[in-house]
Structures are given as structure tokens and as C-alpha cells.
Design brief:
146 residues, mainly alpha, two-stranded antiparallel sheet, 62% helix
Length: 146
């Protein structure tokens, strides 16, 4: 639901958040009225954003993105897997917030968004196929509708 919150406690970021987490908190809590479960999901997303920031800074500080494995082979640095896992977790947490996009007043569930996207894809395919057949008929000189 879009709109401001009536209580300052709902808008104030939890203590201990760093800049990335505070930015995410302010962007969401300042714009939407959240349920208690959404507030908790947002807290977790903000903490994950902070952890991701720390991991990304650690990766940027590495001299190499590879390390030597136990048998001497070159392998990706373990921090890369952690960054990837945190990015996926952050995406899941923010998706679970179910916030509306610019065209919606209320957010839709992920399953509904997926179904809508699939339906649009099927419709587009059907329309493209139909346009292709129509173009073929026109090229063959067939006029009129059916």
C-alpha cells in the first residue's frame, strides 16, 4: 500500500544499519505502509544489503579473484560465491515484500507476476505467428478476411 506511515517508529531505520541498509529502509518505509511481517522482511533485506556491501568491498580489495585449491588448482575465490548468494537473498527478500510497481496501487504476488508474464509471452507468440501467416497470405495474393 502506498502512503506515509502514521508512526515515526515505523519509518525510523533499525539501529546498526550502515548506509546501504539505511538507504533501502528509507526508500521503502518512507513510501509504503507495511504490515508487521513486511517490516521484518525489510529489516532482513536491509541487513543483507549491508552484508552485501561489505562482501563487495572485500572482493574489490582482493589482489586476484582466484585462489589455490588444496591440490594446487586455481579456483574462484570463496567470497565470489558469498556475494552471489547475498545478491540472490536480497532479491528474494525484496521480492517477498510484494511492493507495487509504478503502475500498481497494490503489489502482486510473485506467482501472479510470473503468470502474467507467461500469458503475455503466449499471446505475443500467438500474435507473431498470426501476423506471419497473414503476411504469407498477403504475399501470395490472397485478399480479404476469414
Amino acid at each position: 500500500m502506498v502512503g506515509g506511515s502514521s508512526s515515526d517508529d515505523d519509518v525510523r531505520p533499525p539501529s546498526g544499519l550502515k548506509a546501504p541498509g539505511r538507504r533501502l529502509w528509507t526508500a521503502v518505509a518512507g513510501l509504503y505502509i507495511l504490515t508487521a511481517s513486511e517490516v521484518e522482511m525489510l529489516r532482513q533485506a536491509c541487513r543483507t544489503a549491508d552484508e552485501l556491501d561489505r562482501l563487495e568491498r572485500a572482493v574489490r580489495a582482493l589482489p586476484e579473484l582466484t585462489t589455490t585449491g588444496s591440490t594446487g588448482q586455481l579456483k574462484p575465490h570463496p567470497l565470489l560465491a558469498e556475494v552471489r548468494a547475498h545478491r540472490q537473498l536480497l532479491e528474494r527478500l525484496t521480492t517477498a515484500l510484494n511492493l507495487p510497481d509504478d503502475t500498481e496501487e497494490v503489489g502482486t504476488r510473485a506467482s501472479s507476476r510470473h503468470a502474467r508474464k507467461a500469458a503475455k509471452g503466449r499471446w505475443r507468440k500467438r500474435t507473431d505467428e498470426g501476423n506471419g501467416k497473414l503476411a504469407e497470405l498477403r504475399a501470395a495474393g490472397v485478399q480479404g478476411g476469414w
